[in-house]
Amino acid sequence: MPSPTVDPNLAEALRELGCAGATELVLGGMPARDLAQRFGTPLYVFDAAVLARRVARVRAALGPRVELLWSVKANPSLAVTRCLRLAGTGAEVASLGELHLALAAGHAAAALRFAGPGKTDAEIDAAVGLGLGCFHAESRSEVAAIAAAAARHGTRVAVAVRVNLPQELAGARMRMGGRSSRFGVDAEQVPALLRAIGADARLQLAGLHVYAGTQCFDAAAFVQHAQQLVVHAERWERDLGLALCELDLGGGFGTALFEDDPVFDLDAAGRGVRELVAAHDRADRRWFVELGRYLAAPAGVYLTRVVRTKTSGAQRHAALDGGMHQAAAAAGVGTVLRRAPLVVHATRLGEPAGDSVALGGPLCTPADQFGSAVPLPPLAEGDLVALLGAGAYGLSYSPHTFLSHATPAEVLVGDGPPRLARQRGSARDVLRDQAP
Ligand SMILES: Cc1ncc(COP(=O)(O)O)c(C=O)c1O
To answer: Atom 13 in ligand 1: which residue has the minimum CA distance?
Structure first.
């Protein structure tokens, strides 16, 4: 029998998990079916060895002068954040909650960066009190709030300005700059703000930050955008007589999570960044790149079991015990065109597909669907379906209170025996924190 053709992104996702050519999904040395048996479904599984390999690959590509930051928002898992720290990443956070998570994962407050356009005065105050390393400020008003917090705490606080450059980040699926934006400070407003920070004894001007979009599949566009930041930094240093030592070049490296996604050329991005750094480096300079999805997505698998199958019209349907309330990104939330995520029959890898199946979860909305015609080996009730590339923007990005299912458990594999990283919720959690 000819072996079925496998989509290249699916093949790469399996290779990354060490399952190329395997007949069943094995994660960190344990068959997915055993993990599902032991920890139940739906289940998130994160592989520490994959996380460490991703970090090593990115650090090698970017070179030794660039500090790699983990964007905690991509997966606020203590276990994942700790693994990534041990693999050599710093961290950037976007809320007080993420700041606490990063501290619990072993990061020093003084090494953390805090970005986000809507930091409240209370969050800023608490972050200063905890000894946060540097704010990535997104407005003049935020800078005033940071200065006020610094005065209350009797300390000097480092601030970098997030710049909204005049150019969009070409090649990014979701763009956050290059036009009127809540994110960052428009480039023409930056000099006055830098002057104000530089003149304020409560503040220490750290440098500049840019982050202009996510799922950028164009390495040359990323480098070109980073270069724009550097050009602006040098001009402002010259014009204003100020030092902008820290340059955070952003991130958003594209990660192939759907069957027709292109592949991000990490080597080309790394080469471009290394050349940029070499051309503009100096002793007091610190360079950063911040990544979420690219580091974590390939290390995660969402395991879910078929609850019911049936035929409706001419189409086979399978209702799973997991769905878009726990894996919204894989169900296409936030994308314009719905496409099939990287999905496999966990115990029958590489077997030929039967009739295509519409795969969805238990929610009472047609939006709860991973694909309307997914080619998989025939699915029976009780079978295990695995969504690959699920290590970023999973549960935390999902409307997981919709329909009040228990939240899934999370398991860490790949550094010792599998261990529970987050307990499964309970059906009674719906009552928690509600007035009786
Ligand atoms: C400021 C900032 N940094 C980093 C990230 C992480 O992006 P990604 O997961 O695409 O690497 C985001 C995502 O929205 C962000 O807003």
So the answer is: 214
Question: Does ligand 1 come within 6 angstroms of the Cβ of 291?
Answer: yes
Closest Cα to atom 1, ligand 1: which residue?
A: 211
Write out pLDDT tens, residues 132-163: 999 999 999 999 999 999 999 999 999 999 99
CA–CA gap between residue 287 and residue 281 (Å, rounded): 9
In the CATH scheme, what is the code of domain 49-297? 3.20.20.10
pLDDT band at 1, cuts 50/70/90?
A: very low
Instruction: Locate 43 and state its tokens.
Output: 């289940």
Give the position, in ligand 1's atom list, of the atom nearest the Cα of 215: 10
Q: Are 255 and 296 in contact (CB under 8 A)?
A: no
- Going from the Cα of 215 to the center of ligand 1, the distance in angstroms, rounded, reads 9
pLDDT at 332: 85
Q: Domains of the chain: which residue ranges?
A: 8-47+298-426, 49-297
Calculate how far, in angstroms, residue 353's C-alpha sits from the geometric centre of ligand 1.
36
Element (H, E) at 66: strand 66-71
pTM for this prediction: 0.96
Could you tell me the fold of the domain covering 8-47+298-426?
Lyase, Ornithine Decarboxylase; Chain A, domain 1 (2.40.37)
